[in-house]
Design goal:
The protein has 9 helices and 37 strands. The protein has 629 residues and is mostly beta strands. A hairpin with an 8-residue loop joins β14 and β15. The chain is globular, with a radius of gyration of 25 Å.
């Protein structure tokens, strides 16, 4: 009887194990987030019944005279730079008080396969560089732009990607830095008050990186604008072909950066407009602690004083590798031995910024940092790959218990804030905080578009061209299933032309028509750029804080106003380096709702606040050069 019992038990165990094993074998293996992952359906926001009043944007590209069409360089060889798009910058280049536009232009990355006759007949070969459109205001309120003659000859034979704008030689004119696949370029603006716009090439250190986003900021407090360049991966056509990524096992595709070696940022220190590469000496050339290889695969770049010590820090969105948070410990004086005074330490891991809420390095592209909560908590938004929700990291200040140093505590709260679920489906590049409706709190907008033109054949529910998304800040204090989330997506049918699908890449904001609210310019991979005017309905007062002085771009401003009967304190900074490959208008747009005036003060490098005064609403305020002293 005992033997029978144990034999029966063994048979039962065997049958049960067989059933469990069969079920496990039938389940598909897990796939990582990113290019090879199936696309999940968008998740509802925490309070699906919450509705918001949208803000419509109107496409005025044709009427404005902007006829820029991006040249991706794609000629059938499927080379990785072809899928990442080109940048846009919004700035007043000729000093007439009107915002102008600069676009980065690509070109074929190598000669067309076949005969030289075919290659030489391709009009795009050697024509990459920049395209510049100067604005003249029209009576109907739609800005008009005219392309600068000869702009395609300012830089030739250049696959341009990102742009940075700022007055590097302190002559009162904004200069132009062009990040590129290969050698970057710096153009100095020598336009006179009465003359045609003029740029001349300036010397910068030689390099052959793949530059993406770039920005200008005074990192060491000496009054000069330094330059930071985000570089993507070690790349050449031969390396690309050797990686040989495919979607179906046979057809070449663009794919993730995991098959390419990392690289480094470039930091160019300025000495009255002369630049030297101080990346290694400053500690910014980060390496993988295991392999010793450079760790950057950088696409997005933003500057923010994350520890509030008066010095701008560098935040970097890396693609499928940990993000960087380079804490600035620079001094104002250059050592006697000529070494750089710049010092950076990566604090992304200890603060919580390096990874998402699940501990993963995301496919991060665009990035922005702002204060959307009407308190001193900073939010850092990061646009991610398809099937990876956009991240919204919230940084709360904390004082170190033992050292006394200020270190933020950073956590990804996108899901609870209402942004995580609705962004899960999309592949996001440009990402911006802005007060679209001028009600006194910052909203959020992102530009979406896939890498692969044929993605719909391989991933159900996915598309190549994708609509942009606008999230309205409700001002809600709660962020759970019992109350309204902080951000609610504006219904697409209320967004106007913002909802028209494109292969979205660079995204920049600025008041193009001078009516006080932020307008948008977005680039379309291989397509026509779009100028989108903000068509908000109803009231909404405003002020704009503007400056070209280097010290102001790293400063923190407080704007206090009485909105809807309550005292509201908003925070802003002026740095134009935000989003993806882009430069926004170098100004802070502040919505005031029904407030008729506001009080502005500025935080100095030593942490003290200086009152700048009270200002009536609906005006542009140009800060004096000595305002931060």
């Amino acid at each position: 009887m005992a033997r029978g019992f144990w034999r029966s038990l063994g048979v039962i165990v065997f049958i049960a194990a067989s059933i469990i094993g069969f079920r496990l074998l039938r389940q598909p293996p897990p796939t990582p987030a990113g290019s090879e992952a199936p696309v999940a359906a968008p998740e509802p926001s925490p309070a699906s019944g919450v509705t918001v009043r949208g803000v419509a944007f109107r496409d005025v590209t044709a009427a404005s005279g902007v006829d820029f069409v991006h040249e991706s360089g794609a000629r059938g060889t499927t080379l990785l730079p072809e899928c990442l798009g080109s940048g846009v910058a919004i700035a007043d280049l000729d000093g007439d008080g009107l915002l102008d536009l600069v676009f980065a232009q690509g070109q074929p990355l190598e000669s067309v396969a076949g005969s030289q006759d075919i290659a030489s007949s391709d009009p795009a070969i050697g024509r990459g560089g920049v395209r510049i459109y100067l604005q003249t205001r029209a009576a109907d309120g739609v800005p008009r732009f005219a392309r600068v003659p000869g702009d395609d000859a300012l830089v030739t034979d250049c696959y341009a990607t990102g742009l940075a704008v700022g007055d590097v030689n302190a002559d009162g004119r904004p200069d132009l830095y062009i990040a590129a696949v290969g050698q970057d370029h710096l153009l100095l603006n020598s336009t006179t008050d009465a003359g045609a716009i003029t740029f001349a090439a300036a010397a910068i250190p030689a390099e052959q990186e793949w530059g993406t986003s770039a920005g200008m900021i005074d990192l060491d407090g000496d009054g000069d604008l330094d330059i930071v360049v985000a570089n993507y991966v070690r790349w050449s056509p031969d390396i690309d072909r050797a990686v040989g990524y495919t979607l179906d096992g046979t057809t070449r595709a663009y794919g993730p950066p995991t098959g390419f070696a990392g690289t480094r940022l470039i930091i160019l220190e300025s000495d009255r407009g002369a630049f030297r590469d101080v990346t290694e000496a400053s500690g910014a050339a980060l390496r993988n602690p295991v392999t010793g290889e450079y760790a950057a695969k950088a696409l997005g770049l933003v500057f923010a004083d994350i520890d509030r010590d008066g010095r701008p820090d560098i935040l970097v969105a890396n693609d499928k590798t940990p993000k960087f948070l380079l804490r600035n410990g620079s001094g104002a004086d250059t050592p006697d031995d000529g070494a750089t005074a710049m010092r950076f330490t990566d604090i992304a891991v200890p603060t919580g910024f390096a990874y998402d809420r699940d501990g993963n390095a995301t496919g991060a592209m665009g990035i922005d940092a702002a204060w959307p909560f009407d308190d001193d908590r900073m939010a850092i938004a990061v646009g991610n790959f398809a099937n990876e929700p956009s991240s919204v990291y919230v940084a709360a200040p904390r004082i170190g218990a033992s050292t006394g140093e200020s270190l933020p505590v950073i956590s990804d709260e996108a899901l609870g804030l209402g942004i995580g679920g609705p962004t899960r489906r999309w592949l996001t590049f440009g990402a911006l905080f802005l007060d679209a409706d001028l009600d006194g709190d910052l909203d959020f907008v992102q530009a979406n578009g896939h890498l692969e033109p044929a993605i719909a054949r391989f991933q159900s529910g996915q598309t190549y061209r994708q609509r942009m998304q606008l999230f309205i800040n409700t001002g809600a204090a709660t962020a759970d299933s019992r109350g309204a989330p902080r951000f609610v997506e504006s219904p697409p049918d209320e967004c106007g032309d913002l909802a028209t699908p494109i292969v979205g890449r660079a995204l920049a904001a600025g008041d193009l028509d001078g009516d006080g609210d932020p307008d948008l310019v977005v680039t379309d991979l291989g397509g026509a750029a779009r100028v989108l005017l903000n068509e908000r309905q109803g009231g909404g007062n405003w002020i704009v804080l503007a400056s070209t002085h280097p010290a102001h771009w790293s400063a923190e401003f407080e704007i206090t106003a009485t909105i809807a009967g309550a005292t509201v304190v908003q925070r802003r900074s002026l740095s134009p380096t935000r989003s993806y490959l882009s430069q926004c208008e170098p100004a802070a747009h502040v919505g005031l709702g029904d407030a008729a005036s506001a009080v502005v003060r500025m935080r100095g490098p030593d942490g003290t606040w200086r009152d700048l005064g009270g200002f009536a609403a609906n005006q542009r305020i140009t800060l004096p050069a000595d305002a931060r002293r």
